[in-house]
Amino acid sequence: MNDISDAELIIVIGSNTTEQHPLASTRIFEALEKGAELYVVDPRKIRLTDFAHAYAAIEPGTNLPMINAMIHVIIEEGLINKEFIEKRTENYEEMKKSVADCTPEWAESISRVPAETIRQFARKYATTDKAMILFTMGVTQQTTGVKSIRALGNLAMITGHVGRPSTGINPLRGQNNVQGAGDMAALPDYLPGYQRPEWPETKERFTKAWGDFSCLRGRNIIEMFNLMEEGTMKAAYIVGENPVLSDPDQNHTIQCLEKVPFLVVQDIFLTETAHYADIVLPAASFLEREGTYTNTDRRVQMIHPVISPVGDSKPDWEIITEIMKRIGMNVDYQSPSDIMDEINSTTDLYGGITHERIKKVGIQWPCPTKDHPGTPILHVGEFIRGKGLFTINDFEFLGDQRSDEYPFLLTTGRVTHQYHTGTMTRKVWTLALEYPHGFVEIHPKDAEEYGIQMHQPVKITSARGSITAPAMVTDRINEKTLFVPFHFAESPANRLTGQNLDPIINIPALKVSAVRIEVEQ
Amino acid sequence: MKNMKRYKLNRENLDQVLNQWNRKTKVYVPTGEGKDISLMPLLEGQRTEDYINLTLPVKEFVFEQKEKLFSWEKNDDDLEVTNLAHQHAAERILFGVRACDTYGIAFTDRFYLQEFLDPNYRSRRSGTTIIAVNCLRAGEHCFCTSIGTGVFSTVGYDIALTPLGSIYLVEVATQKGQALIDAAALHFTEAEESLMEKKDALRLQVEESFPLKMDLSNLWEDMAKTFDADFWLREANACIACTGCTNVCPTCTCFNVVEENKNLNKGERVRYWDSCQSEHFTRNAEHHNPRDAVSRVRYRIYDKLKYIEERFGYKGCSGCGRCTDVCPTYISIIDIIHATQKAVRENQTPAAVHQTTKIRHEIIDREINMKKGLYTPDIATITRVKQETPEIKRIFMKYDDPELHTNYEYKGQFFQVTVFGEGEVPLSIPFGPDHTDEFVFDFKNVGNVTNVLYHMKEGDQVGLRGPYGHAFPYNALKGRNLIFVGSGVAMAPLRTVIEPVIKNPNDFQQIIILASALRYEKLIYKDEMKEWEKIENVNIKYALKDPSDHIDAHIGYVNDLLPDLGLNWTNTTALVCASPKRIKKVARDLMDLGMKPSDILVTLETHMRCGAGKCGHCKVGSHYMCVDGPVFTYEEMMALPPEY
Question: CB distance A51–B237 less than 8 Å?
Answer without folding.
Answer: yes
